[in-house]
From TrEMBL:
The protein, known as: ABC transporter ATP-binding protein
ABC transporter domain ranges (all copies): 12-239
UniProt cross-references to Pfam families, sorted A to Z: ABC_tran
Keyword RNA-binding assigned: no
The entry's keywords: ATP-binding, Nucleotide-binding, Translocase, Transport
Entries under InterPro entries matching the protein: AAA+_ATPase, ABC_transporter-like_ATP-bd, ABC_transporter-like_CS, P-loop_NTPase
A GO MF label: ATP binding
PANTHER family: ABC TRANSPORTER I FAMILY MEMBER 17
Source organism phylogeny: Bacteria, Bacillati, Actinomycetota, Thermoleophilia, Solirubrobacterales
């Protein structure tokens, strides 16, 4: 009974995920859950497979083994565009399309979506930018502003799960704090969040659960357990 309930648990379930790239195993038999309404952080060294893991979660990359379930359904059975609306990925490099911020936010929205300025401004506000940004040419934005526009763009699609790759990399402390508050609020509204980050302060502020990757395998724990270990490892690297 318990396992049947677990299978249908709302959120993302990664089970036995294995990926090799360039003939080298990157992820090995990786399993963890991201329940809706929670924030999970992945804190692991550069090159350990964080982006690879996120890309498997919305089918940008096909794993060599294992499954990813969304609300109990294998993501392989969900049409890719539909899946990527439900599981939004905010990538490490903010890619801007030509045109204004409005054009960027509205791109790809369908009749089902609210593409009016009020809805776009709400998404911008959640990402920490005011409505005046709607008319700004996207190619004139700073790196941090671009990062927040890509977060807003994912939010306009009304995702159920949000995957973020280094969401604070281009942000100062105040902007990172704002994004952290936004992620906590989104989780409070029922969204599931999975964020890969090097920013231990950010991770500690937002996480309900934390994961690190060791030799391609997941070690899961409370933020205190995992982040304490990551801090100690960094200290050892510096010595
Ligand atoms: N297409 C590819 N072919 C071969 N190796 C790859 C490919 N893509 C990634 N890799 C390697 O796979 C490993 C994991 O990469 P990934 O980008 O997932 O790491 P990461 O933990 O996100 O790193 P970072 O924190 O630096 O962004 C790295 O060693 C990388 O060099």
């Amino acid at each position: 009974m318990a396992s049947e309930r677990d299978e249908a648990a709302p959120g993302l379930r990664v089970h036995g995920l294995s990926v090799a790239l360039g003939g080298r195993p990157v992820l090995r038999d990786l399993s963890f859950d991201v329940p809706k309404g929670t924030v999970t952080v992945v804190v692991a060294p550069s090159g350990s497979g964080k982006s690879t893991l996120l890309r498997c979660c919305n089918r940008l990359l096909q794993p060599d083994g294992g499954t990813v379930l969304l609300d109990g359904a294998d993501v392989d059975g969900i049409e890719a565009c539909a899946l990527r609306r439900r599981v939004g990925l905010v990538g490490q490099v903010p890619v801007m399309l030509p045109g204004t911020v409005r054009d960027n936010l509205a791109y790809g929205l369908t009749e089902r979506d609210d593409s009016g300025d009020a809805a776009l401004a709400r998404a911008l506000a959640a990402a920490g930018l005011d409505a005046s940004f709607l008319d700004r040419p996207a190619d004139e934005l700073s790196g941090g502003e671009r990062a927040r526009v890509t977060l807003a763009r994912a939010l306009t699609r009304g995702p159920e799960l949000l995957l973020l790759d280094e969401p604070t990399a281009a942000l100062d402390a105040a902007a990172a704090g704002h994004v952290g508050e936004t992620l906590r609020r989104l989780a409070g509204d029922g969204l599931g969040v999975l964020a890969a980050t090097h920013d231990l302060g950010f991770a500690a502020a937002v996480a309900d659960r934390a994961i690190t990757l060791r030799d391609g395998r997941a070690v899961t724990g409370t933020p205190e357990e995992i982040l304490g270990g990551a801090d100690a490892e960094r200290g050892a690297e510096r010595r």
